[in-house]
Amino acid sequence: MREALVAAAFRLFLERGYEQTTVDDIVALAGVGRRSFFRYFPSKEDVVFPDHERCLSDMQAFLARSPEDADPVRRVCDAARLVLRMYAENPAFSVQRYHLTKKVPGLRAYELSVVWRYERALAEYLRGRLGGRPDGILRADVIAAAVVAAHNNALRSWLRSDGRDDAGAAVDHALAYAQSAFGDVPVPPRGTSPEDVVVVAARRGTPLWQVLREIEDAFARD
Amino acid sequence: MREALVAAAFRLFLERGYEQTTVDDIVALAGVGRRSFFRYFPSKEDVVFPDHERCLSDMQAFLARSPEDADPVRRVCDAARLVLRMYAENPAFSVQRYHLTKKVPGLRAYELSVVWRYERALAEYLRGRLGGRPDGILRADVIAAAVVAAHNNALRSWLRSDGRDDAGAAVDHALAYAQSAFGDVPVPPRGTSPEDVVVVAARRGTPLWQVLREIEDAFARD
DNA sequence: TCCATTCGCTGCACTGAGTGCCACCTGCCT
DNA sequence: AGGCAGGTGGCACTCAGTGCAGCGAATGGA
Fold it and tell me: What domains can you pick out in chain A, each with its CATH number?
């Protein structure tokens, strides 16, 4: 029944537009009662994003079962990849939805609130991991935002290609950039005394992220 | 008339809640016709954010008149400070609105779309400045998101303090962190040969942003 | 086999946001 | 005086979303 409603809704949305389609039109096409629509979808917008609720739960579960010693930044990047996977499971559907949300302001606003919930999930996890350190909460929020922005950048360019590009590679590349900007910040240097000194040498003109990767490696090396 | 409507709306919102207040209640208290409300505010939510439209225009104008040689990251940080200034102009009002949006999901969603427009303005400016460089668009989006997240983190903690903390200092600190994560990435080293080498030494355990600042300074030094 | 309870579905009536239309009134120009 | 333009109010309408009551089918027990 959910599937029937989603199918009917998308047929009409693509045919005559989102705002030009009423809930009555959808239920008439699906052959169900109007009241049942709102039993399955709390609002008309929800029918456009039928699987995000499940994906959000998956992400929360994924973060909850993180090993204690995992690199938090890498972990939230992996969590973000769950969203990509959901989009990639159904490329045609995702591309249709993308074109829909791009032109309907109401749907864009709704999508923002969905993205916001993903971002909060990542930020909450990071707050738990970085909470004690100086500016831990600030860092958690900023890293979550950067990871989400990188993910969405790659996701959108994949959607713009109508699902032809390699989504996985694009997201990997984007997340690598976000990760490089924040490095292994939260991992405390284990078993080092503050007298230890790390020296990094770089040519001028080297992209900063390469320099950062060197620093990261230097700090990671025992 | 705008002011009268905003005043009446907030009195009722604080008194009996946002959802329990109808537009009819507002216009009755303000003594104007219902139709006039929607002439000034396209939706009920807009009356809660009466000055964001103006602030967004200010930000766009500010970015448009940026000098060519300005550091783009610093520039978007300064642009973000315009938003803080708007909040700080009317602390009592901002705090009331904060408590309102915190508990009403519909207003939170609306606020997200407002924040998104600020973020897009910053990202568009950065895209123009970084567009040519490798991953320019990705970097633009990620930096804009990080700056907005840092700003909002500081703004919210100021609002939670009921406007008692030093908002400017908190935002400066948060933006400095975001800036440090991305450094002077876009500024190409001027007049240097790739053979020049920069050496940075840091103690283990030093916060990464301090290390980054050293690098930044080292690169900036002729 | 028959009754009772429950659960999912439906129709109905209602509230409230948002819109289109027209009438009005006020100030202004000719 | 008579048009004219812009801000305003009133009215009726659409449509999303909700509360309520009825209805049928499946389940479960005697």
Answer: 1-47 (1.10.10.60), 49-188 (1.10.357.10), 191-222 (no CATH)
